[in-house]
Description:
This protein is α/β, with parallel strands linked by helices. The protein is built from 16 helices and 15 strands. It is about 40% helix and about 20% strand.
Amino acid sequence: MKILVAPDKFKDSLNATELCDAIASGINKFNPNIEVIKHPLADGGDGTLNILDQHLNLDTISVPIKDPLFRTIKASYKKTNTVAYIEMAEASGLALLNENERNCMHTTSYGTGQLILDAITKGVKTIYLSLGGSATCDAGIGLAQALGYTFVNQNNESLKPIGANLGKIYTIRPPRNKNILNKVNFISLCDVDNPLFGPQGASHMFSAQKGANTKEIIILDKGLSHFAAVIDNQLGKNITNIPGAGAAGGIGGGSIAFLNAKLQSGIKTILEITQFSKKIEKIDLIFTGEGKIDQQTLNGKVVFGVSQLAKTKNIPTYVIAGTSDLSISEIKSIGITSLKTVLSASKDKHEAFTNTKHIVEKLAFEMMKQKLLT
């Protein structure tokens, strides 16, 4: 019997590789003769870079850049001769800031633009930009300024590229060397389909977790709406209703406006890049998982992508998650054969977080045992 283990990370607990190891250990405790193939995954958010590196053995490039608060730090991206993989969280991520430093009114994506510029100067022709885990809600004006764009207000004064200034943009001045951007194919990977602004937009859905208060959330949302109007008027690009434009504090939309990027589902792209379809050709069973199974899962997270592909090949899909909010019918509808959660197998939340690896191992063992009985 051949089993493929292909989970995403459990955020703030186990990374995807550790989760693979725990599931594989449980399977082999049940039967050491089962062949287990590990295929850790990501959905285009934070952690994507490490996953791609494991599959593709990429070169690491480290660059001095500005963090979300304009402080100089070193950040890395991965590349081959002609392709670069850049993760926004590396340069402009929430994890780079202490709790008391987080406020997306005042943070910037400038450092991500610096990584892009470095990759371009090194001659890459395609750049995959992984959106997710950002500390920002600046719609990519920071990123754009690092690439030569200038944003000015009504008084012809240059604006600092932060979320608080989105509503003050009066004129966008393109870079003098815009030609270098036109020579690169940009693909933005996102794991959400939220629009740029509005009740489901970047600010209302994600700014609170990036430090914005109720008043600031409204200011940012109005700023994003104003930004979209300026982009439409001056650059001729309508980014208002594009699904995913609200990803990473509006960088989904900003990357379309400034980089002419193509927005793609993160998990679909990662599955393609890592040749997942080929890997499951002779597989009897797939184990996958992620921290939380909920409505966002149905919008294109790892579990959704894996189970949908497995469904087309009639391969049973077992899921181990941290928690699940979905109904049984929703779980079945996306092709999940069996689902167990760490929380339901724990005494309490504390045990679920402190003993995750052991519980995951135990759940994998139990699911194999149940399979034998069916």
